[in-house]
Write a structure and sequence with these properties.
32% of the residues lie in helices and 17% in strands. By secondary structure, it is an alpha+beta fold.
Length: 72
């Protein structure tokens, strides 16, 4: 599974603790991680969401990144 740098950074942050979004956070930035089951999202009061990493997310965040092949 290819994760963007932003997605990988988010997973690495969640590996140490859950995170609560500020009210104006763009949740679309991490929607794919939630859809893939790598992150759980739980709504809180005041339009905030608490994000936490799942077991699958922990595995994905610990995988080394593979360099992309250059086209011939």
């Amino acid at each position: 599974m290819d994760l963007t740098a932003t997605e990988r950074d988010f997973l690495n942050r969640l590996a140490s603790e859950s995170w609560t979004s500020p009210p104006l956070f763009d949740h679309e930035l991490v929607a794919r991680l939630v859809e893939l089951g790598l992150v759980d999202a739980g709504p809180l009061a005041s339009d905030e969401v608490e994000y936490s990493i799942t077991a699958a997310g922990s595995v994905a965040s610990s995988r080394p990144t593979m360099p992309r092949e250059k086209p011939l």
